[in-house]
Amino acid sequence: MKHPIPLWTEANPPAASSSEVFGGPVTALDVRPLLAQGEEPFEAIMQAVAALPSDGVLELTAPFAPVPLYGVLAERGFAHLVEQRGPGEFVVRFAQTGIRPSTPVQVVMGRYPATAPLFAEYGFDLCCGGKHSLEFAAKAHGVELAAVLARLQAAAIS
User: Fold this and answer.
1) For 65-118, how does the pLDDT look when each residue is reduced to its tens digit (9 = 90+)?
2) Contact 78, 48 (CB under 8 A)
3) Residue extents of the structural domains in the chain
4) Residue closest to 101 by CA, chosen among 125, 122, 123, 74
5) What stretch of H or E contains 91?
């Protein structure tokens, strides 16, 4: 029996793993020299993000974990992996998952089946065919959108 709600399409196939999400071409950006000169690297980071191909990965090197950037890029559909290589050397890889506030619940659940337990925990379901956005669902269930995005991003790359 065919499922009444298509969970993915050829244009939006299910992701297999974090190696698939982070397997695209890498753009490296080391912001340590900018910070050492007293400059703010945010604009350079956002320019690098804007220039990424859809399957591209931004590999950012910084002297600290750029925690505020995680939320900024999560809202734009990016997941991240962090590696501390040594004192003052954090390498953070950002890759597009398509999980944004405007993404319908159905699309996320279909592409990333590992997110299903989180949706259940938050009380999100496929009512109305799952067509409502994550932002709508978060508001409807009284949960913080940023927390939902962060947890879905983590589940998508697990």
Assistant:
1) 999 999 999 999 999 999 999 999 999 999 999 999 999 999 998 899 999 999
2) no
3) 18-96, 105-156
4) 74
5) strand 89-96
